[in-house]
Amino acid sequence: MIGIIGAMEDEVAQLKKNMEIEETTEVASLSFCRGKLSGKEVVVVRSGIGKVNAAICTQILVDQFHVDVIINTGIAGSLDAEIDIGDIVISTDAVEHDMDASIFGDPIGQIPQMDTFSFPADESLVKLAKEVNEKANPDVHTWIGRVVSGDQFVSSGEKKEQLIRVFDAKCTEMEGAAIAHAAYLNKISCVIIRAISDKADNSAVVDYPAFEAAAIRHSVRLIEALVSEI
Ligand code: ADE
């Protein structure tokens, strides 16, 4: 079973429209939509924004829907001058950038007493997503690298520079690392796939709404093609 967590209402709505829906179940105020997408059994859900919503949603997908793969889609702010609005970033790994226990000697991002700094994506899913995106969205540039997540919409040059310096990440958003964290604890495969909506600096709030429709088109096309290949 494949779980698909979308951050944007419109994106999830489009996936649901393209699905053969078998059942919709409400758990913890979230609406889990089970059925077939591209001929595969999936559960599509909108987690809500932020790390706590994302982690709760992931655990329910594991416990109640028995997913063995989780795909997280949505939009993100670019952390690399070369990565432009409209490009797609596929995660190698994810870090919670707002975790800071550095007073005890841990690097920023390290969750104290955990055996990993970052939460890895499934390597075969990453490879497959890249191949599939090059076919599904041939005009869209695909990047592979670290995603950082925090309960913060990044919209200042200063914060952006700090994230680049500390984490060497490709993009920032607000859920992916929490989903990858929950997937890691449950020993299931996951990948984060994000379309770039803004540059995570002073221009971020202006760019964000303008790009949403195109981001949804690209990510829905990619998700459908990827699900059919899993
Ligand atoms: N999602 C899209 N753009 C973002 C940004 N700049 N910061 C956090 N989450 C985002």
TrEMBL record:
The keyword Iron does not apply. Pathway: Amino-acid biosynthesis; L-methionine biosynthesis via salvage pathway; S-methyl-5-thio-alpha-D-ribose 1-phosphate from S-methyl-5'-thioadenosine (hydrolase route): step 1/2. Residues 2-227 form the Nucleoside phosphorylase domain. GO terms for biological process: L-methionine salvage from methylthioadenosine; L-methionine salvage from S-adenosylmethionine; nucleoside catabolic process. SUPFAM superfamilies: Purine and uridine phosphorylases (SSF53167). GO terms for cellular component: cytosol. The keyword Amino-acid biosynthesis applies. Keywords: Amino-acid biosynthesis, Glycosidase, Hydrolase, Methionine biosynthesis. Its EC number is 3.2.2.9. InterPro entries: MTA_SAH_Nsdase, Nucleoside_phosphorylase_d, Nucleoside_phosphorylase_sf. One of its GO terms (molecular function) is adenosylhomocysteine nucleosidase activity. It comes from the Bacteria. NCBIfam families: MTA_SAH-Nsdase, PRK05584.1. This is adenosylhomocysteine nucleosidase.
